Amino acid sequence: MSCHLLVDQLRFARASFVECLEKVSEEDALKRIDSMNCLSWTIGHLANQENRYWVQAGQGITLYPDLNDLVGYQKPASTPPLEAMWTAWRAITAQADEYLDTLTPAILGTHFVYEGKDYPENIGTMLLRNIYHYWVHTGEARTMREIMGHTDLPVYVGDLSQAPYRREVG
Length: 170
Description:
Blueprint: H1 5-20, H2 26-29, H3 39-59, H4 67-71, H5 82-100, H6 105-108, E1 113-114, E2 117-118, H7 123-147
């Protein structure tokens, strides 16, 4: 099944994020550097955004109901266990993909409805926000790993042949 170009871009951003965090130990995943959150928090934080957008708003399903309190926007800093955050991220992104695979240009221009009101951004803009959010945190995670002395890190952004531009169709 061919998906929308932006969905492919989100999947590429996810893959780059995962690649950036390969081989991170539990100890390093829990380190905070200055005011930055730890790497395990970042994994949960991105899972939380996908959970809110593509699982809760897109499908009406609630996975990991306590995740937002743990790693949500403007919540107190936390150091959640690395494997627990990867487990949540994998489950949430798998469920999110069920919704993302249905997106068309027409759907991207619509809004989710919450408590009787349209979300302020349309679904396409939310998808862009999700993609950009991954890139911000991938860059931050790479920087943190460099500060920790990690070497042989993957190239930031990486092989775009895995998600090339293609003309948008209907």
